[in-house]
Structures are given as C-alpha cells and as structure tokens.
TrEMBL record:
The lineage of its organism: Bacteria, Pseudomonadati, Bacteroidota, Sphingobacteriia, Sphingobacteriales. The chain crosses the membrane at residues 12-30. It holds the Pfam family Acyltransferase. This is 1-acyl-sn-glycerol-3-phosphate acyltransferase. GO terms for molecular function: 1-acylglycerol-3-phosphate O-acyltransferase activity.
Length: 243
C-alpha cells in the first residue's frame, strides 16, 4: 500500500513538473483565444509525458471513424483523475473543459481554467448560467466542449455511474450539436479518484469513444431521453469492463 501511495503522489508531482517545464509556452499560448488550439497540443504533451514517466499509458478504440472537423459536446464518465488525461489523448480537435472552480486554486491547472477552460461553482445557479453561456459561445466558435455529466467522481468503490445532470444535453439540443460519449473503462483500477487514499500503480487505461449521437432532430422535450440514452451507452460499456 505504501508503494501504491508513493506512485499516486509521484504521478501528481509529475503533472506539476511537466506543466512547469512547459509553462513559458503555455503562458504564451494562453494569452489569445486564437492560440488555444496550440495550447491544447501542449496540454496533450504534458499529459502524455506525466503519464508515461509514471508507467501509465492509454489505448483508445473508436466505435467508428470520427469527423474531427465537427464540433462536439463530449460526455465521459468519471472515476479517476486519469480520465482527463485519457480524454486529452482521445480527442483530436480543439477542445476545452468545464470543471469545478476549485481548479482555479490548483497552480498546475489554473493556467488552463483562467484561459481556455471554463470554471463553474456547482452550488451557484448564476455561476452555472454564466458557465453554460460561455460554453455556448465557445461551441459556436468551433471549440468542442468536454463536460463530465456526473459532475463529480462517485464515492463508491468500485465506482458506479452516478446520475447524469441535464446541462450538457439541453445545450447540445439547443445548439444542434452531436454528443460524443466516451467510456473510460478501467482508469479507476490504476488510480481511483485522486489516488491519495487508495494509491496507484503503473498500467494501461482503456478508453472507448462511442459513435456520435446526433441532436439536430430533437427538441428540449427530448433532453431527458437523450440523457438516459447516453447514460445507458456508457454504463453498459463501463459495467461490462470490456474494451
């Protein structure tokens, strides 16, 4: 258990190390939205390096070829801090995240959430409104949005899928954008949550990118059905444990 906890902390420190290493470039590319696509590639490089040095790698499988020229609302499940890195590895277009505003106080993540990503206070309706308004603007400008519809990592171990929130599905219907479901099948077996309590270990995380779900024919009355459909797709893959 001690070695597992050392590994989890080593991974966390490696994230900080590579963000610090790339910081001058990250800072430069964070200054203008026109540079965010390059900043994303730097984020992907940080993610790959911090994972690889910790002995963590990812295998990504696509249900069908993805048209990366399109804009998506990406909905992954969430059971591990590795899920963000996994999405970084799986996505091939210009994307950004919506996440809790606590990340603004995390020095390694703050540079992203003070520029291209969107912080949100989940306890404030006004903060949520402003966050989704900003997300809509970014989506209209062609920047794919990644949002974890569970809202948080489940407390249960082994993890199960928490109920999804409505926000991303209503937004997808309003903007007539496809939902791209992603199942992080077993990242939690490498590092569950942040790993601070259970520790971590080297391993291979398996990521399954499902086919996009079109919303152009839907109305807001279909939001709950769309949410349930995406939940079912991800839950089936996640509970099966089959990549």
């Amino acid at each position: 258990m001690i070695l597992k906890k050392i590994h989890a902390r080593f991974y966390r420190y490696s994230v900080g190390f590579f963000v610090a290493l790339f910081y001058p470039l990250l800072y430069f590319y964070s200054r203008k939205p026109s540079r965010y696509a390059t900043m994303n590639r730097l984020r992907q490089a940080c993610s790959w390096c911090s994972s690889a040095i910790s002995g963590i790698f990812y295998r990504v499988k696509y249900e069908q070829p993805i048209d990366w020229q399109r804009t998506y609302i990406v909905c992954p499940n969430h059971s591990s801090s590795l899920d963000v890195t996994a999405c970084n590895m799986a996505l091939k277009n210009n994307f950004h995240y919506m996440g809790k505003d606590a990340f603004l106080k995390n020095w390694a993540l703050a540079i992203f959430f003070k520029s291209m990503d969107i912080p949100v206070n989940r306890e404030s309706k006004m903060s949520s409104f402003k966050a989704f308004k900003k997300a809509a603007e970014n989506l209209k400008n062609g920047r794919t949005l990644v949002i974890f519809p569970e809202g948080k990592i489940p407390d249960d171990y082994p993890p199960r899928l928490n109920e999804f929130k409505n926000g991303p599905f209503r937004l997808a219907i309003e903007l007539k954008l496809p939902i791209l479901p992603i199942t992080c099948v077993d990242n939690w077996k490498i590092i569950w949550d942040t790993g601070l309590e259970t520790g971590g270990s080297p391993g291979i995380g398996h990521v399954y990118v499902h086919k996009p779900i079109e919303t152009s024919h839907l109305t807001l009355e279909d939001a709950d059905r769309l949410k349930d459909e995406v939940f079912g797709i991800i839950n089936t893959k996640f509970t099966s444990g089959q990549w």
